[in-house]
Amino acid sequence: MKYYSLNHNAPKVSFQEAVIQGLATDKGLYFPETISPLAPAFFETIENLSNEEIAFEAIQQFVGDEIPEATLKQIIAETLCFDFPVVEVEKGIYSLELFHGPTMAFKDVGARFMSRCLGYFNKDNKDSKNTVLVATSGDTGGAVASGFLGVTGVEVIILYPSGKVSDIQERQLTTLGQNIKALEVDGVFDDCQDMVKKAFLDESLKHKNLTSANSINIARWLPQMFYFFFAYKALKKQNKPLVFSCPSGNFGNICAGIIAKKMGLPVEHFVAATNVNDTVPRFLENGVYDPKPSIATISNAMDVGNPSNFIRIQEMYHNDLEQFKKDFSSFTFSDEETIAAMKTIYNADGYIAEPHGAVGYLGLKKELQNHPNAIGIFLETAHPIKFLDTVEPTLNVKLPIPTQIESVLGKDKVSVKIKTYEELKAFLA
Ligand SMILES: *Cc1c(COP(=O)(O)O)cnc(C)c1O
Question: Which residues are in the Threonine synthase N-terminal domain (predicted)?
Answer without folding.
Answer: 2-79
